[in-house]
Amino acid sequence: MEFTFYKYQGTGNDFVIIDNRELFFPKENTALVAKICDRRFGVGADGLLLLEKHHSADFRMVYYNSDGNLSSMCGNGGRCISHFAKFLGIISEKTTFEAVDGMHEATVEKDWVSLKMNDVEKVNVSKNYTFLNTGSPHHVELVSDLKDVDVFTSGRNIRNKIYGKEGANVNFVAQNDDAVFSVRTYERGVEDETLSCGTGVTAVAIAMFEMGKTSENKVTLKTPGGQLQVRFEKDGLGYKNVFLEGPAKQVFKGIWK
Ligand SMILES: N[C@@H](CCC[C@H](N)C(=O)O)C(=O)O
């Protein structure tokens, strides 16, 4: 099977994106998705995104983790696919699209994408960590030695021992300044540390506000792959008008054979 694909990265979280408006892609073929995402036998990516037609919105986003399975919302993927929709001429600057967790709005200005995330209903703060869902489930834990954390081993243990079969993504965080945090994330479905996670940094920003670590509602998140901004409004027990903002880039185009 031969088809054109595009490779994108958003702060180092990388994706293969395919224009599937003609519905040619075999969506049930998880082995093919995993092979495309394999860094030695395929293109290599943290995930694969399909752009499809939608009856009322600009497009639909279908997201697979690199293990080949469909998953929950991907924030950096949402920013990259919005950039791709502009590249295809489906949208100009602003878009509304549907993802697995519902409708999203985004604005694309050159290689900078602002993505509206879903409202967060509640944040569970416990003694050693905070858990919340920003479209995907996230464990957030403050650490004193971020650069020395074994993200793979500790992240995998937490993902499996606390969250069981369904799992969760695990974010380790250090505070740099009042509204600046560094984050390293173990991603479920990639089963490794990635260079950045959009729903993860969104979860970190909100968790830090909820825990009283910052009083700012616009937070800078530094990841190993680059810098993102998250802004939000507190709304009762939850959060609304949550925006994830940062760079997204098309890095190459290829033919899968
Ligand atoms: N990289 C993503 C998160 C993708 C989903 C996650 N791996 C999961 O299965 O929960 C992001 O940028 O949000």
Automatic annotation (TrEMBL):
CC annotations in GO: cytosol
Reactions performed catalytically: (2S,6S)-2,6-diaminopimelate = meso-2,6-diaminopimelate
Protein name: Diaminopimelate epimerase
Ribosomal protein found in the keyword field: no
Family in the record: Belongs to the diaminopimelate epimerase family.
Function: Catalyzes the stereoinversion of LL-2,6-diaminopimelate (L,L-DAP) to meso-diaminopimelate (meso-DAP), a precursor of L-lysine and an essential component of the bacterial peptidoglycan.
Transmembrane spans: none
Metabolic or biological pathway, per its Swiss-Prot or TrEMBL entry: Amino-acid biosynthesis; L-lysine biosynthesis via DAP pathway; DL-2,6-diaminopimelate from LL-2,6-diaminopimelate: step 1/1
Active site: C74, C197
Native organism: Aequorivita lipolytica
Top EC category: isomerase
Keyword field: Amino-acid biosynthesis, Cytoplasm, Isomerase, Lysine biosynthesis
DNA damage listed as a keyword: no
